Amino acid sequence: MNVNGIKMVGIDQSIPIEIRERVAFNKDVDAALNVLKENGLDEAIILSTCHRSEIYFFSESKSFEDIKNFYIKYFNLDDEFRKYFCCISGLEAVEHIFRVASGLESMVLGEDQILGQVKESLMNSQVNGISGKILNKLFMDAISMGKKVRTETGLKNYSSSISHIAIKFVENVFEDLKGKNAFVIGTGEMGKIAIRGLILKGANVSVSNRTYSKVQKLKSEMPDIEIVPYSDKYEQIAKSDIVISATNAPHYTISYDKFYNVYNGKKICMVDIALPRDIDPKIGRIHGVKLYSIDDLKRTAEENRKKQLNAIKNAEEIVLKGVNEFNTWFKTIKVEPHIKKITIYSDEICDMEFDRLVNKLEKMTDKDKENIKKSLKRVAEKMANVMIKHLKDDALVMDEISFCIDGSEVKT
């Protein structure tokens, strides 16, 4: 078993949004995982966010090309799309998921949402029965790494969500948001953060969602919002100064023609923080409309990143230490069955010697027998632990290990 069997194929925020949105799994993760399982993968995890679409898998037989082929077929893509995929394996893939979970690969450095998304991706894989020992360990370590980096480096003190940056862009357009009419479409995590931010800035916030009950529930949490039926969203857009859209729809939820029919020519700022995009980009060409997408928010994110160089350095050191620890664990996996054999053998020897001693010493009390057995167990465990330590140490530096137990040679 080789650590290079850990592989990742995917695309991230370095690829333009019009490409990324074509491979966004969104609500199709369960179906995609089942297709991967049918294709012969025993361990696979899909991490799909607004910035990345990545498939992690552990296999010594499946190749990068197999997963590229899956993407091409699943999303009905042209073969030309292959050039956009990033393919990494081994410790490079381990370091990558650790960096992702830590927020080091996020557009907004240190943001918390990605950590929840990594947890959810692991859970989805486990529920669908396609995450085994290797990826379970890898992603659990990544989650722990994400928490550790945020608490020990101060990175979380700088973090800001995409939604917060979106509001900063709106402020650049209007300066003061107090009294402005804001319309948020979508009640997911990013939508909620945007709503809270707009309320704090003094805006009048209206909210719409395709599922009406979700908006009603949100109203009970945030009584300051006004509910707008989803079917009335274009009429509400016409009344709004600010529109922020953050849905999981697989297509444009605000089309050019319908928007143009209701637009009255007044100044409006629209921010599309969805992937795939919610707002037809042609709307941004209309005079009076300021339209920003996720990729437009990168400038602010990069400015924030420059202020955090020291925290980044500390975070990267923690990540590299974690990669080394994972590598140590992986190398010792191959000797685990033999460690079990050593433990069983030491227990058998202990029991055998105890029985022989008891048969020779007839006048022992039950308490004496108990103490003798405990002493024999301790001696056996100490001797076994010495052998186990040497076995693990050898596993770190040797590809093949041989040792003798019970008179027979064992190779690994």
Automatic annotation (TrEMBL):
<comment type="similarity">
    <text>Belongs to the glutamyl-tRNA reductase family.</text>
</comment>
<dbReference type="InterPro" id="IPR015896">
    <property type="entry name" value="4pyrrol_synth_GluRdtase_dimer"/>
</dbReference>
<comment type="function">
    <text>Catalyzes the NADPH-dependent reduction of glutamyl-tRNA(Glu) to glutamate 1-semialdehyde (GSA).</text>
</comment>
<feature type="binding site">
    <location>
        <begin position="111"/>
        <end position="113"/>
    </location>
    <ligand>
        <name>substrate</name>
    </ligand>
</feature>
<dbReference type="InterPro" id="IPR015895">
    <property type="entry name" value="4pyrrol_synth_GluRdtase_N"/>
</dbReference>
<feature type="binding site">
    <location>
        <begin position="49"/>
        <end position="52"/>
    </location>
    <ligand>
        <name>substrate</name>
    </ligand>
</feature>
<dbReference type="GO" id="GO:0050661">
    <property type="term" value="F:NADP binding"/>
</dbReference>
<comment type="pathway">
    <text>Porphyrin-containing compound metabolism; protoporphyrin-IX biosynthesis; 5-aminolevulinate from L-glutamyl-tRNA(Glu): step 1/2.</text>
</comment>
<dbReference type="InterPro" id="IPR036291">
    <property type="entry name" value="NAD(P)-bd_dom_sf"/>
</dbReference>
<dbReference type="Pfam" id="PF05201">
    <property type="entry name" value="GlutR_N"/>
</dbReference>
<dbReference type="InterPro" id="IPR000343">
    <property type="entry name" value="4pyrrol_synth_GluRdtase"/>
</dbReference>
<dbReference type="InterPro" id="IPR006151">
    <property type="entry name" value="Shikm_DH/Glu-tRNA_Rdtase"/>
</dbReference>
<feature type="binding site">
    <location>
        <position position="106"/>
    </location>
    <ligand>
        <name>substrate</name>
    </ligand>
</feature>
<dbReference type="Pfam" id="PF00745">
    <property type="entry name" value="GlutR_dimer"/>
</dbReference>
<dbReference type="InterPro" id="IPR036453">
    <property type="entry name" value="GluRdtase_dimer_dom_sf"/>
</dbReference>
<comment type="subunit">
    <text>Homodimer.</text>
</comment>
<dbReference type="InterPro" id="IPR018214">
    <property type="entry name" value="GluRdtase_CS"/>
</dbReference>
<keyword id="KW-0627">Porphyrin biosynthesis</keyword>
<feature type="domain" description="Tetrapyrrole biosynthesis glutamyl-tRNA reductase dimerisation">
    <location>
        <begin position="315"/>
        <end position="395"/>
    </location>
</feature>
<protein>
    <recommendedName>
        <fullName>Glutamyl-tRNA reductase</fullName>
        <ecNumber>1.2.1.70</ecNumber>
    </recommendedName>
</protein>
<dbReference type="Pfam" id="PF01488">
    <property type="entry name" value="Shikimate_DH"/>
</dbReference>
<dbReference type="GO" id="GO:0019353">
    <property type="term" value="P:protoporphyrinogen IX biosynthetic process from glutamate"/>
</dbReference>
<keyword id="KW-0521">NADP</keyword>
<feature type="domain" description="Glutamyl-tRNA reductase N-terminal">
    <location>
        <begin position="13"/>
        <end position="153"/>
    </location>
</feature>
<feature type="site" description="Important for activity">
    <location>
        <position position="96"/>
    </location>
</feature>
<feature type="binding site">
    <location>
        <begin position="186"/>
        <end position="191"/>
    </location>
    <ligand>
        <name>NADP(+)</name>
    </ligand>
</feature>
<feature type="domain" description="Quinate/shikimate 5-dehydrogenase/glutamyl-tRNA reductase">
    <location>
        <begin position="170"/>
        <end position="299"/>
    </location>
</feature>
<feature type="active site" description="Nucleophile">
    <location>
        <position position="50"/>
    </location>
</feature>
<feature type="binding site">
    <location>
        <position position="117"/>
    </location>
    <ligand>
        <name>substrate</name>
    </ligand>
</feature>
<keyword id="KW-0560">Oxidoreductase</keyword>
<dbReference type="InterPro" id="IPR036343">
    <property type="entry name" value="GluRdtase_N_sf"/>
</dbReference>
<dbReference type="GO" id="GO:0008883">
    <property type="term" value="F:glutamyl-tRNA reductase activity"/>
</dbReference>
